[in-house]
Amino acid sequence: MADIIDGKAIAADVTAKVKIVADSLLEKTGIQTGLAVVIVGEDPASQVYVANKGRTAKACGFHSVEHKLPEDTSEQALVDIVESLNNDPAIHGILVQLPLPKHIDAGRIIQTIAPEKDVDGFHFINVGKLGTGEIDTAFVPCTPAGSMLLIERVLGKDLSGKTAVVVGRSNIVGKPMFNLLLAANATVTIAHSRTRDLEALCKTADILIAAVGRPQMIKGDWVKPGAVLIDVGINRIDAPEKGEGKTRLVGDADFDSCQAVASAITPVPGGVGPMTIAMLMANAVTSAYRSAGEEAPSF
Ligand SMILES: Nc1nc(=O)c2c([nH]1)NC[C@@H]1CN(c3ccc(C(=O)N[C@@H](CCC(=O)O)C(=O)O)cc3)C=[N+]21
Ligand SMILES: [Mg+2]
């Protein structure tokens, strides 16, 4: 029976450390870490995440700013807001919540964010730095960074000799996860919807990352006995057992059957999700340290 990796508790450790280092920067230099979150439209799930981010930022002692813009905001108006945040010395991190409405070119908005304030790590400069091993001056996307921290808690920092399989090839999770695992010396394969015999490939993994966005797709008999399973999926499914019209959150792995085979597994909720928010805070305070010419702490 696998150990459950307590992402909520590890995220709380990270944010407690973020608060300490943010307070110490403030005391030493007078700089208060500033984080701006921009959301366009009314998607209820997005509203929940943005509220969580704002609350955590305040708990870390940050200057926290939220821009809530209507669904019909023009692309140019959003570019103007991002540019004003780029030029605001009180802001060290900018996050524009994705997805954006269809009439806005999300790629253009991401590339408008100043790379040194791009705490999501989505700008080409940060993607390129991660891809070329310049991790110390990059921003690493929060979900993969948080997933690596969970892996580190179980297996340590050096993954030499371990085989990792990442199921999912998104720019936000799969590709940066590949680079981070590779940088930690794992032997890494990315699998996706066109992969042949996904089940057999998953079964080769000492470290299995489920990031496909399909509820409960990865089953226990796809998992190598003793593997570490990191479930990045957050899917809301119907839960009639809880009552009419009720829903619940599940991951991309079928938790019960996978727990019976793996040695460690992240739950959903309470696994990777809270780590994503914690790593956003870590990236923001790192940005504030860099802006002060101070050595940024590691998390
Ligand atoms: N520019 C951008 N950056 C993001 O990082 C980003 C984004 N856009 N758009 C949306 C996704 C989603 N995301 C989550 C963060 C935390 C939880 C989280 O804390 N989840 C809790 C449960 C929350 C619940 O109950 O709904 C958990 O897994 O335990 C989930 C999802 C960040 N995203
Ligand atoms: Mg299973």
UniProtKB/TrEMBL annotation:
Q: Which residues bind NADP(+)?
A: G168, R169, S170, I234
Domain Tetrahydrofolate dehydrogenase/cyclohydrolase catalytic: where?
A: 5-120
User: Is-annotated flag, keyword Oxidoreductase?
Assistant: yes
- Domain of life here? Bacteria
Q: Which InterPro entries match?
A: Aminoacid_DH-like_N_sf, NAD(P)-bd_dom_sf, THF_DH/CycHdrlase, THF_DH/CycHdrlase_cat_dom, THF_DH/CycHdrlase_CS, THF_DH/CycHdrlase_NAD-bd_dom
Domain annotation Tetrahydrofolate dehydrogenase/cyclohydrolase NAD(P)-binding: ranges: 141-290
Q: For this protein, what is the EC number? A: 1.5.1.5, 3.5.4.9
**Subunit structure comment from the entry:** Homodimer.
Role this protein plays: Catalyzes the oxidation of 5,10-methylenetetrahydrofolate to 5,10-methenyltetrahydrofolate and then the hydrolysis of 5,10-methenyltetrahydrofolate to 10-formyltetrahydrofolate.
| Protein name per Swiss-Prot or TrEMBL | Bifunctional protein FolD
Q: What organism, scientifically named, is this protein from?
A: Ahrensia kielensis
Lineage, top ranks = Bacteria, Pseudomonadati, Pseudomonadota, Alphaproteobacteria, Hyphomicrobiales
